[in-house]
Amino acid sequence: MTPDILMKIAISGKGGVGKTLLSSLLSKTFAESGYAVLAIDADPDANLAATLGFPYPDKITPVSELTDLIEERVGAKPGQSSSFFKLNPRVDDLPEKYSVKLDGIKLMVMGRIKRGGTGCYCPEGALLQALLAHLLLQRNEVVILDMEAGIEHLTRGTAKAVDKLIVVVEPGRRSIETAQRIFELAKDINLNNIAVVGNKIQNQSQKEFIIKNLPNAEFLGFIPYDNAIINADLANRSILNSSQPVIAEVKKIYRTLISVTKIPIKQSK
Fold first, then answer.
1. Mean pLDDT of 150-170
2. What is the model's pLDDT at position 263?
3. 120-156 burial string, b = 16+ CB within 10 Å, else e?
4. Does a structural domain hold residue 135?
5. Residue ranges making up the domain that contains 106
6. How does pLDDT run across 37-73, given as a tens digit for each residue?
7. Mean pLDDT over residues 134-143, rounded?
8. What percentage of the chain reaches a pLDDT higher than 90?
9. Cα 174–21–255 angle (5° rounding)?
10. Which of 104, 25, 30 is nearest to 268 (CA)?
11. Cys staple from 14: which of 78, 132, 160, 178, with CB 3.0 to 4.6 Å?
């Protein structure tokens, strides 16, 4: 039996670079190594459940769409203008009530969180921000947060709980520019534990391109490009077991994360 572990990882980057794949593989690796894992889909595209292999992912209702719950906890209905509602509603029971579980991984789908690092003054935004703060500040488990291209979900208060913000980058100017913007936004909320994972790397020159254009970055690893990932997706097969080179590199990234956060490595089951 593993001890309680407080480790919080946020994953961001330009759309399509492989954030959800990395989030899924890290969740799987931590779970197989004996850790309690809570995976959070905070990307409006909400593909984490499908990538992790949850059955009927389209039937998982995002927290932001639980209208009755939001009204009960916040005191106002989503979409209705109101000057008075709770900014700190009770949320500690929500992870158990509104998560789904598969292969040792608990999953919550957040739904859209309004932009703006200072929070959203709307009922659903108040609940989501309170829930995110609880997940990052008070949960005794590995929390992996799959975000959209940015860090709008994080505030100065929650940023201090993030052990590592991982920016996923593929070889390309737009991906590099998005990473640079994320670095700047992170500085604004004093989030300094930032690292980069290169993805879809086909050769050494692509790896060197990323390193050259992000000269001050900490690199956790470089995931190779593998057609097996695409072929598995086209065939509607699980992509998590489709590429041994990708799995091997993600396991290296896992070991690096364990090392830099001083969490003891557990033997895989």
1. 90
2. 56
3. bebbbbbbbbbbbbbbbeebebbbbbbbbbbbbbbbe
4. yes
5. 7-260
6. 999 999 887 789 999 999 999 899 999 899 999 999 9
7. 89
8. 64
9. 105
10. 30
11. 178
CATH code of the domain containing 248: 3.40.50.300
Q: Quote the Cα angle for 61-64-70, to 5°.
A: 110
Supply 174's token pair: 């737009």
Helix, strand or coil, per DSSP, at residue 168: strand
Neighbours of 258 (CB within 10 A): 17
Residue 167: inside a domain, yes or no?
yes
| DSSP structure string for 75-94 | SS-TTS--S---SS---TTH
Which one, of 219, 214, 160, lies nearest residue 184 by Cα? Answer: 214
Identify the residue whose tokens are 């913000």.
165
User: In Å, how far are 101, 164, 195, 220, 236 from 253, measured between CA atoms?
Assistant: 24, 12, 11, 6, 27
> 232 and 242 in contact (C-beta within 8 Å)?
yes
